Amino acid sequence: MHSSPARITELFKIEKPVIQAGMIWTSGWRLASAVSNAGGLGMLGAGSMYPKVLLEHIQKYKAASARPFAVNLPLLYPDIDRHIKTIIDEKVPIVFTSAGNPKTYTGILKQQGITVVHVVSSSKFALKAQDAGCDAVVAEGFEAGGHNGREETTSFVLIPAVCDKIDIPVIAAGGIATGRQMLAAIVLGASGVQLGSRFVASTEASAHIDFKNAVINATEGDTLLSLKQLTPVRLLKNDFFQQVQEAEKNGASKETLEALLGKGRAKKGMFDGNLLEGELEIGQVSTLLNKIEPAAQIVEDIWQEYSRLRALPH
Asked: How far is it, in rounded angstroms, from Cα 310 to Cα 221?
């Protein structure tokens, strides 16, 4: 066990070990700068950005905040080399990589003085990230929204398992939206928390208002891990989700599922607000969310609740 929030606040040069995940179609410069200005770590979600769009968001972020920030880089992205060039040219201080082999780019980024964090869904991958030279890992449980681990390991099991195996700091993710959940993650060995769904339901998130409202109206069982033959992804149930379920039940091939998914399905749902035909990526913790708030208020509420509970006599 090696939980110490100072390991994360010192590593990232931030005040509070509260990190906003780089969700696609949601995490632009407005959200990232609001979180960083509130003392957490804001992150740009490069997975839904063309290279010139990422450049624009980095520059707009810098105009809105002088504080550290990160870029989330899914390694399966087609324009990855151009993104890497932008990140280096613009002197982005921190990069979170996901969905790929951390060995590929960690060395290149570290040579430029960039702090590198990799998202993992098992202790086996956490060890690989540590061996690749990553500065920290995000241990993301199966409750999380969006792309997810095939192992279906929940955060309560994953966080201590990863903490027992590696020496670098662990950031807990998946099913965290409150200060009490943050405290639980720290007790389990994490040194900080990363929140995705909670920040989707923020004023500054670039997601469509109809999607935000669907998120705060969700209850238990409204999300499910889907598309396991392709890349497992947790989705809010809707017409598109039902089509996928039906296809999988009928033994659809990988090619059939790829055709059904098509192009731009996540943008259609989360950014354009087509709640019937879009891919609505969100975590199980949406059931605890009931209002859309400014990001600074979210950071403050989480931190206050965490601090108050941590101070209670044991």
From this structure: 30
For residues 310 and 308, give the distance between their C-alpha atoms in angstroms, rounded to a whole number.
6
Closest CA to 269 of 197, 215, 195, 314: 215
* CA distance linking residue 130 with residue 83, whole number of Å: 23
Q: What is the DSSP string of 169-211?
A: -EEEESS--SHHHHHHHHHTT-SEEEESHHHHTBTT--S-HHH
Same domain, 172 and 35: yes
What is the tens place of the pLDDT at every residue in 97-138?
998 999 999 999 999 999 999 999 999 999 999 999 999 999
Give the tens place of pLDDT for each residue, 43-63: 999 999 999 999 999 999 999
**H helix or E strand, kind and range, residue 224:** strand 223-226
135 and 88, same domain (yes or no)? yes
pTM for the model stands at 0.96
Per DSSP bridges, beta strands 170-173 and 136-140 are parallel
Our count of domains for the chain comes to 2
Same domain, 157 and 169: yes
| Segments forming the whole domain that contains residue 130 | 5-207+289-310
Residues 19, 166, single domain; the answer is yes
CA distance 277 to 61: 32
Among 92, 99, 94, 108, which residue's Cα sits nearest to residue 78? 99
Pairing between strand 233-236 and 146-147?
antiparallel
Q: What residue has token string 């632009």? A: 28
* Residue where the block lists tokens 């598109």: 240
Measured CA to CA, the distance from residue 58 to residue 251 in angstroms comes to 43
